[in-house]
Amino acid sequence: MAEIGLRYWDGSQAVEIPATDDLSGQKLRVVKNGTTYGIPLVDPSSPGALPIRINIGTVAVPDIKAIGTLGYYEINRLARSYTGYGEAPWHNLISGGALVDTDSYLIYSTTQGNWTPSPTNTETLRLNADGSVTASGKHPTVKFGIWYRVYESFKARVYVNGGGNGYPPQTSPSYRGSNNSTYQRQDSTTILVNGTPRTITIGGTYQVYSTTWYCGGYGTGHVTVVVRNVASNYFDVEVEVYENDEEYDNAGIIMDSYIEPAP
Hints:
Blueprint: E1 7-9, E2 14-16, E3 28-32, E4 35-39, E5 41-42, E6 49-55, E7 64-68, E8 73-83, E9 91-95, E10 98-99, E11 106-110, E12 127-134, E13 141-151, E14 156-164, E15 174-187, E16 190-193, E17 196-199, E18 205-214, E19 220-231, E20 234-244, E21 252-261
Antiparallel strand pairs: 1-2, 3-4, 5-7, 6-7, 8-9, 8-13, 9-10, 11-12, 12-21, 13-20, 14-15, 14-21, 15-16, 16-17, 18-19, 19-20
């Protein structure tokens, strides 16, 4: 964010209008002292919307936006699953951005240590999700899943480093694949992934990263990263780490992941 002295009067006081020197996706711009700044436009229903409206469409086909903040991000969902046989349902630790449970295998934390705000939305903190687990029993399947949600045109970085026990089976999991990518909305159906525009329809997905390893028999392990364009004003970056050992009964996974503001 940039402070450029732009204000509006709300009836009782002068309120700052936010600006940014990152012009990616910014249709409303102003120039001050030879420098161009973007003025974020958001959905009028956004929590960060100011009471100033602009039509970026036409008279016949209006597209009303509000001046507002660049948005924010959150851990919308954090879950784990492990079982002694086959698939098991997800058990949520964070749901809808709010903490609903704790777990010794998958830990949520922030850059301020053990402080874990609920709801988890933020504009500045790095939000971490780290875990490790080894299951036992016939055909164990172990999974960690984290769904990061990014609102409006906020530019966020999502990192994941994951792995599993592999083959020959180890007594504890090791890292086998990582991804470090940036995400920012450009328009309702375009999301910048590492600066490259990706056209994603509302409800559609784009696979950012996937890696697979062998863990005996018919078993495999995976780290996947998918971006899902949930609605016109927010998208999810979905991270999953899982392993299914169908022969040696020693499935295990490890995951380090976080979301933070991107430069």
